């Protein structure tokens, strides 16, 4: 889906979509992806872009301290979210989070409006 989105926006020459997490078997953690990217692109600084709901829980992520030492965090703020401890950008995002969608699906709720 990411590859289709990048292509449809005409960004294929500027953005590379890598299948790192798709190709990984078992659990896939952000730290594993970052370490793999650092190995492939050793002289690159990475920014982890998150929604505000994910950012408030990043301290609970697998090896979060190590992850936070390797990347800069940029939070896409939502209209109803409290400010985070990280740099934020407001892109007029809808007040819909993937966490909310997953919770609604697991509760067998209608998600057609999300």
How are the SSEs placed, and which strands pair?
Elements: H1 2-8, H2 20-23, H3 30-40, E1 46-51, H4 52-55, H5 64-70, E2 71-76, E3 87-89, H6 98-106
Task: Walk me through this protein's architecture.
The model has no long low-confidence stretch (mean pLDDT 90). 37% of the residues lie in helices and 13% in strands. Strands 1-2-3 form a 3-stranded parallel β-sheet. The two termini are 17 Å apart. It is of the alpha/beta class. The chain has 6 helices and 3 strands, in the order H-H-H-E-H-H-E-E-H.
List keywords for this structure.
single chain, 114 residues, alpha/beta, 3-stranded parallel β-sheet, 3 strands
| Shape descriptor | globular
Total beta strand runs = 3
Question: Which strand order do you get reading across the main beta sheet?
Answer: 1-2-3
Strand pairing plus helix content: what structural class? alpha/beta
Average of the residue pLDDT scores: 90
Biggest sheet features: 3 strands, parallel
Percent strand equals 5-15%
The H-and-E topology, N to C, reads as HHHEHHEEH
List low-confidence stretches: none
Radius of gyration based on Cα positions: 16 Å
Distance between the termini: 17 Å
Helix content: 25-40%
What is the tally of helical segments? Answer: 6
Brief sketch in words of this structure:
37% of the residues lie in helices and 13% in strands.
């Amino acid at each position: 889906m990411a590859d289709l989105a990048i292509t449809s926006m005409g960004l294929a020459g500027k953005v590379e979509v890598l299948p790192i997490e798709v190709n990984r078997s078992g659990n896939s953690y952000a730290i594993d992806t970052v370490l793999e990217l650092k190995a492939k692109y050793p002289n690159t600084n990475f920014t982890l872009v998150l929604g505000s709901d994910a950012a408030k829980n990043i301290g609970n992520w697998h090896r979060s301290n190590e992850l936070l030492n390797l990347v800069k965090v940029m939070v896409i703020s939502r209209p109803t979210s409290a400010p985070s401890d990280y740099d934020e950008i407001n892109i007029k995002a809808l007040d819909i989070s993937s966490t909310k969608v997953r919770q609604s699906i697991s509760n067998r709720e209608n998600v057609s409006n999300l």
